Amino acid sequence: MDAVPRAASICLIRGCTKRTSRSGRCADHAPQERAWLRKSPRNQRRDSTWERHTRPRALARDGFACVRCGSRDHLEVDHVIPIAQGGTWTLDNAQTLCQPCHRGKTADDRRQKNDL
Predict the structure, then answer these.
(1) Distance from chain centroid for Cα 98
(2) DSSP 51
(3) pLDDT tens across 61-73, in order?
(4) What are the helix (H) ranges across the chain?
């Protein structure tokens, strides 16, 4: 079965009749990539290591259950000590929490930070 070709569209900018890219604007009017949106190579490595190695190991270590309430639904892996407060990206600083417990812990962390 042949794919149906996509209809050409024109730029969203008034008066421009050039063909569009994915953003709905032509190459002349397409938004420029913002450098501040890109992650640094250092943070890309950290996130990659966290997702591929640390996160699955923390889930397995904690028995695929929230360490606070024991729930097995909507699990997330949290930093025990937040990175912004000097925590590390290692397994000993990771814990499994369900979403409600994670939200509560994050709120507690923010309150403690504001009290300092």
Answers:
(1) 17
(2) I
(3) 999 999 999 999 9
(4) 41-49, 55-61, 99-115
Q: What is the Cα–Cα distance from 40 to 9, expressed in whole angstroms?
A: 35
Q: What is the pLDDT of residues 18-62, one digit of tens each?
A: 888 666 788 888 777 665 556 677 666 666 788 888 999 999 999
Asked if 16 and 23 count as a contact pair (C-beta separation under 8 A), the reply is: no
Separation of CA 110 from chain center: 19
98: which 2 tokens? 């369900």
What is the number of helices (H) and of strands (E) in the chain?
A: 3, 2
pTM for this entry? 0.60
Cα separations in angstroms, 110 against 38, 39, 76, 114:
26, 24, 18, 6
Distance CA 2, CA 101 (A): 50
Which position has the token pair 């997330």? 76
């499994």: which residue's tokens?
Answer: 96
Amino acid 55 reads R
- In the chain, the amino acid numbered 42 is R
